[in-house]
Design a protein that fits this description.
Shape of chain A: globular
Structural class of chain A: mainly alpha
Number of helices of chain B: 14
Shape of chain B: globular
Order of helices and strands of chain B: HHHHHHHHHHHHHH
Strand content of chain B: under 5%
Helix content of chain A: over 70%
Order of helices and strands of chain A: HHHHHHHHHHHHH
Radius of gyration of chain A: 23 Å
Number of helices of chain A: 13
Number of strands of chain B: 0
Oligomer: heterodimer
Distance between the termini of chain B: 27 Å
Largest sheet of chain A: none
Radius of gyration of chain B: 25 Å
Number of strands of chain A: 0
Largest sheet of chain B: none
Chain lengths: 279, 331
C-alpha cells in the first residue's frame, strides 16, 4: 500500500485508540495491584499514593490462593498432557494411515466445537453422577471429572492442527527410519514427534490456556477442596468487602503463566489458528 | 474461554501420492493401510469425545422429556417420563418462563449482532493499520492480543472492578474527571448491565477478529494495491474494492465462529453477575444454567437446551448455505 500522509495520521490515531482500549484495563489491574489498602477503599485513583508489594504477599492469606493454584495446576497439567498425547496419536493416524470412517471422525470431532458448553454440562454431570453411583469412582467434586472434561476441550483443535503439521513432514524421513527396522510407532516417536516439536508445544500451550481459564464446568464439577483459580477468585470478587488491591495482585499472578506461554508460542498458534480459516 | 476453531477439515487423504517413493514400498504400504494400528491410535481420542461430547448430547435430548429435579436427580435413570411437558412450559407464550426464554433469545441475538459488529470493526481497523511495516508494529501486535490471551475471568474481574458504581474507574472518569454525568450510574444493575456485558465481551473478542483478519490481509499481494493507487483509487476505495472482497472467504468463517461463541457466551455474565444475571442482561446460556442449577429444574433446562441446539443448527446451516460457495461446506 502506498502510504500517504493522510494514511499515516489516520494510522496514528487508529492505533492510539486501539492501544488505549487495551491498555486502560491492564493499567488499572497493574496499578491497583501495587496500591496500599487505603487507596482502594475510597474513590478510584489513577496513581497509587505509594507503591507497595504487600498485596502480592497478603492475598495468599486472604483467600486460599495456594490451594486454588495447586488445584488448577493439577487439573490443567493433567488435562494438557492427556490431550496432547491423544491428539498426537490421532493426528498421526489421520495424517499417515487410512481407516474406515476417517472423514466422519474428523467431521464429528470438529463439529462438537460448534456447540455451547451448556448443552453438554447438564447431561455430563448426570453421567458422572451415575458412574459414581454404579462404579464408585468419584467424578463430581474431584480432580478426575474435571481432567476428563478439560482434556476433550482442546482436543479437536489440537488434532486438526497437528494433522496438518504431520502431513507437512516429508514421508521420506519416516520411511528411512522404517527401513532401518523401526515400525510405524518407532517412526512416530523417533522421527515425527521430534520434528513436530514446535507444533506440539504450541498445541500444549493452547490446551493449557483453555483449561486454565475455564469457568462453566468448574463451577459445577468442583467442590470446596478442588476449587480452581477461576471459581475461587470469582467467588472472592463477588463478596461484600473485597480487598481489590489483593485481588488484582492475584489476577496478575494467575495470568503470568498463560501470558508468558502465549507470547512464546504466539507465532505457531497464529499460523495454526489462521491457516484453516484463511484457506 | 474455549477457543473453538471450525476449520474446513483439511482433507489429508487428498494429498497427492509421492510418485518416486511409491514403487519400492508399495507392498509394505498396502499392508499398513487400514491396519488395526490406525484404529488403535484414534481410539483414545474417539472414546474421550464419545464420553464428554457425543453421549451427553444424545442424553441431553432425553433429559428434555423427563422430570428432573433435586429429588429425582440422584436416581435420574428412573425419573418419570413426561412427554412434551417441559417443552410446553418452556414455549407456552402465556407462561412466565417462556417469556423469559423468548426475551433471552431476542436479547442474545441483539447482543451477538452488536458485539460481533464492534469486535469485527476494531479487528479490521487493527489489521489494516498493522499490515504495512513500521517501527513498533511487532509490539503493538503482541499488545493487541493480550485481552484474548488473558484468562477470561481475569479480564472480567478487572472490568467488574472498573464498573463499580460508588468508586469504580469508569464512574470516576465520567463523573469526576470529565464531568459529563451528574449522578453515578449503576453499570451492573438494570439496563446498563446489558451494555456492560457488551463492552467486556467485545474487549475480549476483538483480538481474535484482528488475528484472523491480519492473517487474511497478509495473503493479499502488495502489487494489487500499487496498481490501484497508480490508477488513482483512493484509500477508502482500495479498502472497499480490494481489501473487503479479498478477505471475504476468511470473513465468512470468522463471522460464523465469532457469532457462535458470542451467542453462547457464559463466562462474562457469570463472572460479572454471579449465577443469576440481572433480567436486562440475561443471555440464553446463563438462563439455561439458572434454570438447571439454581432452580434445580433440569428437565426444563434440558428442553431449553434442545431448543437452543435446534436454533443453532438452523442458523448455522442457513448461514453456511448463504455465505460459503458450493462445494466448500460439504466436507
Amino acid at each position: 500500500m502506498i502510504e500517504t500522509r493522510g494514511f499515516k495520521v489516520f494510522r496514528f490515531f487508529g492505533l492510539a485508540f486501539l492501544s488505549l482500549v487495551v491498555v486502560v484495563p491492564l493499567y488499572v489491574v497493574l496499578t491497583t495491584s501495587i496500591k496500599p489498602l487505603a487507596d482502594v477503599q475510597g474513590l478510584f485513583t489513577w496513581i497509587p499514593s505509594r507503591v507497595t508489594l504487600e498485596p502480592y504477599v497478603q492475598i495468599w492469606q486472604t483467600v486460599p490462593l495456594a490451594s486454588y493454584f495447586k488445584n488448577s495446576l493439577i487439573v490443567t497439567i493433567s488435562a494438557t498432557v492427556l490431550s496432547v498425547a491423544m491428539a498426537v496419536l490421532a493426528a498421526y493416524s489421520l495424517a499417515r494411515l487410512r481407516f474406515k470412517g476417517q472423514r466422519s471422525f474428523s467431521l464429528v470431532v470438529l463439529s462438537t466445537q460448534m456447540f455451547p458448553g451448556i448443552l453438554f454440562l447438564l447431561p455430563l454431570f448426570l453421567i458422572f453422577v451415575q458412574i459414581q453411583r454404579t462404579v464408585g469412582v468419584q467424578l463430581t467434586g474431584s480432580y478426575l471429572g474435571l481432567i476428563i472434561t478439560y482434556m476433550t476441550f482442546s482436543l479437536p483443535f489440537s488434532i486438526w492442527m497437528l494433522t496438518g503439521y504431520f502431513a507437512s513432514i516429508p514421508k521420506e524421513l519416516e520411511e528411512a527410519s522404517m527401513i532401518d527396522g523401526t515400525g510405524r510407532l518407532g517412526a512416530l516417536f523417533r522421527v515425527v514427534i521430534p520434528v513436530a516439536k514446535p507444533g506440539i508445544i504450541a498445541v500444549a500451550v493452547y490446551a493449557f490456556i483453555t483449561a486454565w481459564g475455564e469457568v462453566l464446568f468448574a463451577s459445577v464439577l468442583t467442590s470446596k477442596d478442588t476449587r480452581t483459580l477461576s471459581i475461587g477468585l470469582r467467588a472472592y470478587a463477588s463478596q461484600q468487602d473485597v480487598y481489590w488491591n489483593q485481588l488484582m495482585a492475584a489476577s496478575v499472578v494467575v495470568s503470568l503463566p498463560v501470558l508468558i506461554g502465549f507470547m512464546l508460542v504466539q507465532k505457531h498458534l497464529i499460523t495454526g489458528l489462521s491457516s484453516g480459516a484463511v484457506k | 474461554m474455549t477457543v473453538n476453531v471450525l476449520p474446513p477439515a483439511t482433507a489429508v487423504e487428498d494429498l497427492p501420492p509421492d510418485p518416486h517413493q511409491q514403487a519400492p514400498l508399495e507392498p509394505a504400504k498396502r499392508k499398513k493401510h487400514r491396519s488395526p494400528l490406525a484404529y488403535l491410535l484414534v481410539a483414545p481420542a474417539a472414546l474421550a469425545e464419545l464420553l464428554v461430547h457425543i453421549v451427553p448430547m444424545v442424553l441431553g435430548v432425553w433429559i428434555a422429556f423427563i422430570t428432573l429435579n433435586q429429588l429425582s436427580i440422584a436416581n435420574w435413570v428412573n425419573a418419570p417420563f413426561v412427554g412434551l411437558r417441559n417443552f410446553v412450559t418452556a414455549l407456552d407464550p402465556s407462561s412466565p418462563i417462556a417469556a423469559q426464554l423468548y426475551g433471552a433469545l431476542g436479547r442474545t441475538v441483539l447482543f451477538t449482532v452488536i458485539v460481533v459488529a464492534i469486535a469485527w470493526s476494531m479487528g479490521m481497523l487493527g489489521a489494516v493499520l498493522l499490515t504495512s511495516s513500521f517501527k513498533g508494529r511487532g509490539i503493538l501486535r503482541t499488545l493487541f492480543l493480550v485481552p484474548y490471551a488473558l484468562p477470561s475471568y481475569v479480564g472480567t474481574i478487572a472490568w467488574a472492578f472498573m464498573f463499580n458504581q460508588r468508586d469504580g474507574a469508569i464512574n470516576r472518569f465520567l463523573v469526576d474527571d470529565l464531568g459529563i454525568l451528574q449522578d453515578r450510574p449503576f453499570w451492573l444493575l438494570g439496563g446498563n448491565s446489558f451494555w456492560a456485558i457488551v463492552i467486556v465481551t467485545a474487549w475480549q473478542f476483538w483480538p481474535f477478529a484482528f488475528l484472523m483478519l491480519l492473517a487474511a490481509l497478509q495473503n493479499i499481494p502488495g502489487d494489487v494495491y500499487e496498481a490501484a493507487s497508480l490508477d488513482g483509487a483512493s484509500l477508502w476505495k482500495q479498502f472497499t474494492q480490494i481489501t473487503l472482497p479479498m478477505v471475504k472467504p476468511a470473513n465468512a468463517v470468522l463471522l460464523l465462529i465469532m457469532s457462535l461463541w458470542i451467542f453462547n457466551q457464559f463466562n462474562v455474565p457469570y463472572v460479572l453477575f454471579g449465577p443469576a444475571s440481572p433480567e436486562q442482561a440475561t443471555l440464553i446460556s446463563p438462563l439455561i444454567y439458572q434454570q438447571s442449577f439454581n432452580n434445580w429444574n433440569f428437565g426444563l433446562g434440558g428442553a431449553m437446551s434442545v431448543m437452543l441446539l435446534v436454533v443453532l443448527l438452523i442458523a448455522s446451516a442457513f448461514y453456511i448455505r448463504m455465505v460459503l460457495p458450493k462445494g466448500q461446506h460439504d466436507d
